[in-house]
Amino acid sequence: MYSVSIIGASGYTGAQLVQLVIQHPKLALAGTYVSENSSDASKNIAELHGNLAHVNATLTPISDAALKEMADGVDFIFLATPHEASHDWMPVLSSGKAKVLDLSGAFRLKDTNVFEQFYGFPHTQEQSLAQAVYGLAEWHEAQIASADVIAVPGCYPTASLSALKPLAHNNLLDESVRPVINAVSGVSGAGRKASLTTSFFEVSLQAYGVLGHRHTPEIEAYLGTPVIFTPHLGNFKRGILATVTVKVKAGTTSAQLEQAYTDAYADKPIVRLRKSFPKIDDVAHTPFVDLHWKLDEASGYAVITAAIDNVMKGAASQAIQCLNIMTKQPVETGLVL
Ligand SMILES: NC(=O)C1=CN([C@@H]2O[C@H](COP(=O)(O)OP(=O)(O)OC[C@H]3O[C@@H](n4cnc5c(N)ncnc54)[C@H](OP(=O)(O)O)[C@@H]3O)[C@@H](O)[C@H]2O)C=CC1
Ligand SMILES: CC(=O)N[C@@H](CCC(=O)OP(=O)(O)O)C(=O)O
């Protein structure tokens, strides 16, 4: 068994991790933490999340001493915390035997200038940043297997890259036309803290972060080509539907696209190549990425749809996939029952 601590356990992705760790055959939950002055400190997680009413886990306020102790006390640490907290704590957490999986955006962008521009604070953890491996599980398996620090991808980048990478990998994209990604997320993507923009009465369907969302440079960095990315907030709880429009190289056939997706994902149990365009209900509460596409051979334009659960494949279940790879277990262990 591997021992696991979760920091930020009261939030949406942290609570999801608690559930996934408990149902995993090889993981034991060692500790669940919240911030030092959290209003939820010392509560049982069952009081906050009704779906965890059967779970007995106290939300311990984090401290410098607890961070240090954890680094050598457990096998894996999950950070389901704001970017700033992950950024500040990574060096101490990764200084011992524990391997660290960070769900925030703190260690995804290698270019610190771009990081500061999009995250609004300077990156000062050069060593941890150099160590961090981007945990896109289907594409970076070899690096993940030997990593000590994982930067778990953002939710929109997970959906977008899953749709686009087979085409880029096979050199099928027309480089003169940027892929256009329109994606709709449920409100859980914004986290648990109450805010006017995510309140039930306010949320409709609206674009936000237009031509400036922090996931644009993340998608571009791991795709290798610029994109136009427009996120939207929808009035549903969980899930992301990304609709991606691309121009492929002249003469590309539907059979070539089919081959590219089959080659990429035939042996990847978390990616489901669908026979029709997926909907969010198909993937909500699951670890899957569902993909479908259609090419107009005459014009060379293709539309690909990716559906994921933002809290699962967009965060918590992808982190568990990475842990499975790091511990040499089948990638779907504890996720696909
Ligand atoms: N929601 C999603 O779909 C996705 C989220 N992410 C990222 O994962 C991380 C967690 O997101 P999410 O679960 O939605 O966030 P939530 O706001 O739901 O939860 C954040 C958690 O962190 C705790 N926390 C807040 N500030 C601190 C601090 N300074 N030190 C320690 N703990 C702190 C909170 O508890 P308290 O304030 O009581 O201490 C809470 O447990 C974020 O970085 C987010 O960007 C990534 C992919 C998808
Ligand atoms: C609906 C919503 O607000 N979504 C979040 C993205 C959640 C996510 O993946 O975030 P990180 O990159 O922070 O880990 C946003 O657009 O900021």
Structure description:
This protein is an alpha/beta fold. The chain contains twelve helices and 14 strands. The strands form two sheets. Strands 3-2-1-4-5-7-6 form a seven-stranded parallel sheet, sandwiched between helices. Strands 9-10-8-11-14-13-12 form a seven-stranded mixed sheet. Helix 1 (12-23) packs across helix 12. The chain is globular, with a radius of gyration of 19 Å. The model has no long low-confidence stretch (mean pLDDT 98). NADPH dihydro-nicotinamide-adenine-dinucleotide phosphate (NDP) binds at residues 7-14, 34-35, 38, 40, 62, 80-83, 85, 103-105, 154-155, 188-189, 191-193, 310-311, 314-315.
Detail the poorly predicted runs: none
Number of helices: 12
In what range is the share of β-strand residues? 15-25%
Would you count the extended β strands for me?
A: 14
What's the story with the biggest beta sheet? 7 strands, parallel
User: How would you classify the helix and strand content by structural class?
Assistant: alpha/beta
Mean pLDDT, all residues: 98
Helix content: 25-40%
Distance between the termini: 19 Å
Dominant shape: globular
- Strand order, sheet with most strands: 3-2-1-4-5-7-6
What are the secondary-structure elements, in order, as H or E? EHEHEHEHEHHEHEHEEHEEHEHEEH
Ligand inventory reads: NADPH dihydro-nicotinamide-adenine-dinucleotide phosphate, N-acetyl-L-glutamyl 5-phosphate
From the alpha-carbon coordinates, what is the Rg to the nearest angstrom?
19 Å
Gist?
The chain has 12 helices and 14 strands.
What keywords describe this structure?
337 residues; alpha/beta; 12 helices; 33% helix; binds NADPH dihydro-nicotinamide-adenine-dinucleotide phosphate; binds N-acetyl-L-glutamyl 5-phosphate
